[in-house]
Specification:
Length: 457
Amino acid sequence: MATVNQEPADPAQPAHAPASDTGTQSTRAGRLGPPPWLALFFLLPALLFLGAFILYPIGFSVWRSLFDASGDRFVGLGNYVEIFRDPDTFIALRNNVIWVVVAPMVVTIFGLIFAVLTERIRWATAFKIVVFMPMAISFLASGVIFRLVYEQDPDRGVANAVITTVQDTVAPRVGYPDASPRDGAGLTEADGGLELEEAVSPGEDPVLLPLVGVAPDDLPDDTAGAADPPTAAGDAVTGTVWLDFPPGGGGTEGAIDDGELGLPAMEIEALQDGAVVATATSGEDGTFTLEGVEGDTTLRLNAENFTESYRGLEWLGSTLVTPSIIIAYLWVWAGFAMVLIAAGLAGIPRDALEAARVDGATEWQVFRRVTVPLLSPVLLVVFVTLMIYVLKVFDLVLIIAPGGVQRDANVLALEMWRVAFGGGQDQGMGSALAVFLLVLVLPAMVFQVRRFREERS
């Protein structure tokens, strides 16, 4: 076998010499990659953008907040003191507290519910599309949509249309707020209703109660033509309450003519010594029968007959306007929360869930003691993100709240715009509100950034 002679290695020479002088220089410099000035060159457009559109507006707003409305007189912290003195700003601050406490929590809860449902239903993709679709709509368009949804008139507002439909199905009630007695009918106003001036006795001639002022379109669908009342028995009082106005006019006042319609669902009471002794409700043709009446009695159409039928809730009134807008906010942002939480659910180890089920835990216990704790980082991120957006809510309040109740629904972002540009023309106070809003948002932003850094480390 041939033997290859090798020269002994020089102990002063490294075992692995660098491949080139360039590599040696880079190693000695302790730096890899392009020089710093080149990285700064590529970052310069972003830095200019941040300076022009973020840093400069913040700095100018802080400076402008120290001056009065004209910008000529230095007032120091006077505008900030006025924030807590002005009643409109105080209402806006109170509403912002309600928003921060309620809206992120409600949206996060519904997002969690929707995310869990997407794992348990067969048409999960279609469900996600429907729930997430409002995110593709601007806040302005969403405000217009819910302004129509909350219309007081059930014929236009979807919310009250649903409520009144359920009400009419469960406990139907008909009202005739515009009805009035026919002249000469002997009916007078009493306690909001109509009372017959002359007393009647059981077993006598039927009682005729003619009314006018009711539009035929306001009558129930099952209304029939007015009919002559039945013959009264010995202890009963009968009669007819009807619309004493035939189509096309004419006819005899106080008498039932052809074409005249009965007034159904009218409540008639028999009174003796001020106490109600019998009640009856008119039928489709307006006829009624009061049974068990003894002696002379007074007939009354009670006040409930002349109150307007239930028209739903006043969604945009001073009491419900803020909760109504929060519902619109939920409609818009529930899809966002659902998508993020669903991504968190997909990352949960299935072994932990199956182990809990094997140990005998119910689905509710698995959800409450396993799923939710494992999802807590994602839920916290969603909650804080929504809190930041809630502090800046503006469009929905401006569009949904009518002018008469906008003060009751006011928030800081809307108050800032209203004071500075929407008629107040006080850019000193508007800048102070902007800076105050920034101070409120900063803690949530810092917390969010720290969480992102911790997750990357």
